[in-house]
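Hi, here's the filled form for the chain we discussed.

Project: internal
Contact: R.S.
Residues: 322
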Amino acid sequence: MQPRTPVDQATMPILIEPQRRLEGSAVALCSWATEHRQELDAWLNRFGAVLLRGFCIGSPGEFHDVVTAIRPQLLSYVGGDSPRTALGERIYTSTEFPPDMEIGLHNELSYTRSWPERVFFCCLAAAESGGETHIADSRKVFAQMDPAVRHRFSDKGVIYRQHLRDGNGESGPGKSWQETFETTDPAEAERICSDQHMDSQWTNRGLRTSLRNPGVLSHPVTAQTCWFNQADMWHASFDSVKAQESAGAAEDPVEEMLGSHACYGDGSEIPMADLEAVRSACRKSEVLFPWRAGDMLILDNVLAMHGRKPFTGERRVLVAMA
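And the returned structure, exactly as it came back:
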């Protein structure tokens, strides 16, 4: 199996396909992945994304088997903000945001202190149209960024703030604190927040949290500087869904209103011009490839950002993290 790049003039993802038909099964891929973990890690540390195609992964169970052959210890999605369904053994649906909504490029769980090193996607059913999991090289996004904006994010970091509704009767946007932290025990939710170095405060509507995280990271292996935040997606101005969530909000969008917001790490608001600079750099760096049923995509979560394009028809993509 020799890797190659599937998208013209793109540096990621590299593509790995079986050389012979008999090798094209999930069982064969499990065996190959177990034997070639070091090569996979080397490719990911260099390219950031690997696409495994032609191995006929056809179920959550087969996806789990392949993923754990590569990384035996999977992570839960505790603290995550995307609506997902747990399918067992720490395999999840990738997202259940509406199909007409584009999910912007981001690094998984970069608004927490426990982001994964690896993110695995598997396509069980490709959309009729659209639905690509678009990706971008975080190093290129950083390089594309306006130098002044880049300096502000590097110097100040990002504060992520959210007001999570109470799932017991409080209606509103997004996930409840019970869904977010996968518990109904307030003390357990407080413990998770504390472990994440997250400030938390109970309100009459739910739970308000705040966390300061870096805006850029040095890759732990290569030491390359990478864009690493979700400020543009957490900001109350993000797309029509966020705009509806914060409609009518006071000057501080999450003091009373439910939803999320991001500001610079010194507490100052991020100017709209800075947010547009971020979105522009992401757009210039994005790579698209069409999903095929059975595909598996592996991302280094620091080197590679990902998102989802709008789609029509049935789309079934799973995710696991390690």
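Let me know if anything looks off before we file it.
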